[in-house]
């Protein structure tokens, strides 16, 4: 499995690459825009830094190019944001978490590979978010929302029928809906999870995510997937002031998968 981390405007503030145990570093690559590669390489000489895109490329296109560049022997690529800390649930029936160590990473990788071995129709496995992790079923969440950290079967992710760059942000929602509607399956694991910085932290998606781009993507998603996406207005009490009231979506993931039959 190759670990692919897209990063933008954060050469000195990345978190994820330094959460990954040393044994997995040879299979880990940070992908940045060609305009920023020198800054990243100088700030992180111990990391594998590559460039396959420019600052003008949408994130979805960048992720597609990253997956095409990687050559995993087992056909699995982990696409993971650059600001994550990883945790493991201590007990299936308790909400407590602890920070992951190398042995935990080994267990997570084996669990992910096992899920793919058992289901040839599985396109992706998601690592759950820390927020709400305690409400998830113990590793029994199928055909649901995946985001942030997703392990894709590369050959399916790059299916020629999938369009990767139709919106920014929410491109991950669009790609996952396309895959579900084609009849592929996904799985969300709850034993392992990630925590990240706040919405629109400096760098990353904050370079292009505004109320206007958020609303445009939400409406575009609903247009592309009629019957599977509802538009809603969201109000948060925390987070960046400029995004506390914004346009969001409710997605019917299982309904999308059921529409394909099988």
Written account of the structure:
By secondary structure, the chain is an alpha/beta fold. It has one domain (2-201): Spore Coat Polysaccharide Biosynthesis Protein SpsA, Chain A (Alpha-Beta Complex), CATH 3.90.550. It is built from seven helices and twelve strands. It has helices at residues 37-43, 59-69, 102-118, 154-157, 171-181, 211-224, 253-258, and strands spanning 2-6, 28-33, 49-53, 76-80, 84-89, 97-99, 122-129, 141-142, 149-153, 185-196, 229-235, 245-251. Strands 1, 2, 3, 4, 5, 6, 7, 8, 9 and 10 form a ten-stranded mixed sheet that branches. A two-stranded antiparallel ribbon has the order 11-12.
Q: What are the key terms here?
A:
ten-stranded mixed beta sheet, single chain, Spore Coat Polysaccharide Biosynthesis Protein SpsA, Chain A, 27% helix, 7 helices, 12 strands, 262 residues
Compact overview of the structure:
This protein is of the alpha/beta class and 262 residues long.
Number of domains: 1
CATH class, named Alpha Beta
Rg over CA atoms: 18 Å
- Which class do the helix and strand fractions yield? alpha/beta
Bin the helical content: 25-40%
Estimate the strand proportion.
25-35%
Distance between the termini: 28 Å
In round numbers, the mean pLDDT is: 94
Largest sheet: 10 strands, mixed
Helix and strand topology:
Elements: E1 2-6, E2 28-33, H1 37-43, E3 49-53, H2 59-69, E4 76-80, E5 84-89, E6 97-99, H3 102-118, E7 122-129, E8 141-142, E9 149-153, H4 154-157, H5 171-181, E10 185-196, H6 211-224, E11 229-235, E12 245-251, H7 253-258
Parallel strand pairs: 1-2, 1-4, 2-3, 7-10
Antiparallel strand pairs: 4-9, 5-6, 5-10, 7-9, 8-10, 11-12
């Amino acid at each position: 499995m190759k670990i692919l981390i897209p990063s933008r405007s954060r050469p000195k503030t990345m978190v994820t690459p330094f959460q990954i145990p040393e044994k997995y570093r040879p299979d880990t690559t940070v992908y940045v825009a060609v305009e920023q590669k020198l800054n990243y390489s100088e700030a992180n000489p111990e990391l594998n830094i590559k460039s396959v895109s420019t600052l003008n490329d949408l994130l979805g296109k960048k992720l597609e190019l990253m997956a095409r560049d990687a050559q995993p022997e087992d056909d699995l690529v982990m696409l993971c944001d650059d600001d994550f800390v990883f945790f493991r649930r201590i007990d299936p029936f308790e909400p407590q978490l602890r920070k992951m160590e190398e042995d935990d990473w080994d267990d997570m990788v084996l669990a992910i590979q096992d899920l793919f071995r058992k289901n040839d129709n599985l396109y992706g496995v998601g690592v759950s978010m820390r927020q709400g992790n305690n409400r998830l079923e113990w590793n029994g969440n199928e055909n649901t929302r995946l985001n942030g950290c997703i392990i894709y079967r590369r050959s399916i992710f790059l299916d020629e029928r999938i369009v990767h760059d139709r919106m920014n942000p929410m491109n991950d929602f669009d790609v996952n809906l396309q895959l579900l509607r084609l009849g592929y399956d996904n799985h969300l694991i709850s034993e392992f999870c990630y925590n990240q910085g706040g919405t629109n932290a400096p760098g990353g998606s904050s370079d292009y995510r505004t109320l206007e781009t958020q609303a445009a993507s939400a409406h575009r998603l609903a247009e592309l997937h009629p019957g599977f996406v509802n538009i809603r207005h969201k109000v948060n009490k925390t987070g960046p002031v400029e995004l506390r009231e914004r346009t969001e979506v409710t997605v019917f993931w299982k309904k999308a998968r059921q529409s394909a039959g099988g």
